[in-house]
């Protein structure tokens, strides 16, 4: 398991769990729920923020937010 902040651009991952309960509700309202497949779309030139694709739209997250999301890498989208 890795933190979302460690994932490279272009990679697909599955959300596993959240470390911080303070951000949990905010992320759930935006479609970031355990089991959801997301793709890291872009990272800003200095690495913060990052843009992810989740449930059909792009979402920008600060690195400190992405640090609280644990994900697992996906072999393929089949």
TrEMBL record:
Residues 2-73 form the Ferrous iron transporter FeoA-like domain. Signal peptide: none annotated. Keywords: Iron. SMART domains: FeoA. It comes from the Bacteria. Pfam families: FeoA. InterPro entries: Fe-transptr_FeoA-like (IPR007167), FeoA (IPR052713), FeoA_core_dom (IPR038157), Transcriptional_repressor_C (IPR008988). One of its GO terms (molecular function) is transition metal ion binding. PANTHER family: FE(2+) TRANSPORT PROTEIN A. This is Ferrous iron transport protein A. It comes from Haoranjiania flava.
């Amino acid at each position: 398991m890795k933190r979302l902040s460690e994932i490279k651009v272009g990679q697909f991952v599955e959300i596993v769990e959240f470390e911080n309960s303070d951000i949990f509700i905010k992320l759930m309202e935006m479609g970031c729920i355990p089991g959801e497949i997301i793709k890291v779309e872009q990272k800003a030139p200095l690495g913060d923020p990052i843009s992810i694709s989740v449930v059909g739209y792009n979402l920008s997250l600060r690195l400190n937010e992405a640090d609280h999301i644990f994900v697992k890498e996906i072999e393929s989208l089949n």
